[in-house]
């Protein structure tokens, strides 16, 4: 089979990509070979005659909502077999369920008045049969793949409309019975929040229980594999509930708006669980002042063993949460404690940390995740013989149980990809048509999430109520509390490692790539204090330290991430980063832009090369089973100018100085355009453009101030991070 690009076809309200598919349908012996009595499949190519058939594949590229809905009925005829799944997984980015259902049923599904093109030339009876089959096929797929779209308590308007349509047009059908059952199921189910087993509010505790700091003896009583299994059980329950469209960049990025405080609850619950694990790790290590150095080291060792058990269970969410907690500011600085951790366990810790290396857009964790997604058991490799023996022994115990394992991913990886896609690709193309090519790209990520959700059905874990109650009871330390306790435990440790202040650049370096384009960096004061955060277009919020998660009540769902570095050698993990030149000469990228000095206490500048942000190749690779298309253009990415565009990060000076927003700029954009978009991203009044100035951060003590009408793309310094500040004019 070969494919050939057939160009585009333009219709009223739609643009299609056309691909010509050439398929061999017959191979026979030529005349001379037949005379000798040979068979076609037994002869060399020069003695055979091949017959080919060429078919046309039409895949809609852009269109109005009406055309996109109509295409649900014609996609199979156009050989675009994945269209229905792609549409159902992504349509919430540009339409509501009610709008789609009304178009499908009222405009295209009316069996009396429909003039659907595909059946226009057939007689009336055949037309009704074909149209009824097409409508039923779409509705069946909708109910199979996205039944949550119809959960609209208390009225269930869409489900009732669908039921009424089926009673009139497909009475007594299996579809009608199915919709009735779904309606009863929704009505009978109690309205319950996705608590994720990790809320620490008093309402979730049994009467008489109170939040408490972990008792070391009680924590030590839980076996390592039991803790890992229970964390995996909680993660699996939450990840299976994730509604894939909640992860779309255009939806997740709107979560910080006041009217969207309940938006994407399934994603929020997963992130809340991640935070709860990181906070639990920190509280067990620092919560008891009376612990001796050796005792604290034993608790760290126990958490490393638990992380290793999570790896065996292919639970990358809790694995990353534990590693992030151990790399948090307050745990990382405990040099004497880390020196008491055995060498073998430190090597195990290093290997687990390397899984989440940010090299080449987290290529290691991405490849490992896809490798594990289709395997029955974990694929464990270790460079240290003793760890390898332990790993294989534990893995053999898992295999002996005869139960396959699923894979729980770190959801932030997919949120990052979807956010960057949403930032880089336009929602609409010329003529106001919905850009459906963008939705095809997004579906490639959504399909991976669905694959992993299916794999989670393989887990066979039983909840341990004793551990779950203990986990819920833990009182989580604030950033200020954990840092204070860390200082009390080892006051002199700061003299030999990076101080929290000097780690700011590294923190931002790591945070920029974890969950998106909003980055929460530590405030200037020490100990680190909490700050409310939020995100908009594209942009999950990462805190600089796992324990700095005491946000306001509406933002506790944001994932916390930390600097990745080894307690033995704080610079080991960053030794490969190239230092950006921050001298006054090198930072002057254009004569028309001025460089001004800032206070040395600023936390914005980073002397580490932040790399390329998100490698476009990792998120635009097409599924081998998808409809072929011409090679896509290279997507703009953070920290790299390509094809006249790039992505920059803009923060607001003052109240929102710690939150970055992702802005796509081109070589045509000037200061007023970029300023207006930045204000919109930060939910501020866009008419106030004249009141602000745009500044690029060059280093901790230098910044680049742009003139009012400067071209941002050509005026910016492309040799340092693409980090900007929007500041009110004096």
From TrEMBL:
Q: Give positions of region: Disordered.
A: 523-548, 575-608
Keywords attached to this entry: Guanine-nucleotide releasing factor
Say yes or no: keyword Repeat present. no
Q: Work out whether the entry's keyword set contains DNA repair.
A: no
Instruction: Mention any one GO cellular component term assigned to this protein in its UniProt record.
Output: plasma membrane
The UniProt GO MF terms for this protein read:
guanyl-nucleotide exchange factor activity
Choose any GO biological process term that the UniProt entry carries and state it: Ras protein signal transduction
Specify the Ras-associating domain's residue ranges. 644-730
Residue spans of biased composition, Polar residues class: 538-548
Ranges that cross the membrane: none
Against Pfam families, the record matches this protein to: RA (PF00788), RasGEF (PF00617), RasGEF_N (PF00618)
Q: Give residue ranges for domain Ras-GEF.
A: 223-492
Looking at the record, the residues that make up the N-terminal Ras-GEF domain are 56-187
**Which PANTHER family does its entry note?**
GUANINE NUCLEOTIDE EXCHANGE FACTOR, RAL GUANINE NUCLEOTIDE DISSOCIATION STIMULATOR-LIKE 1
Name of protein = RGL1 protein
Q: Look up and give the organism this protein is from.
A: Vidua macroura
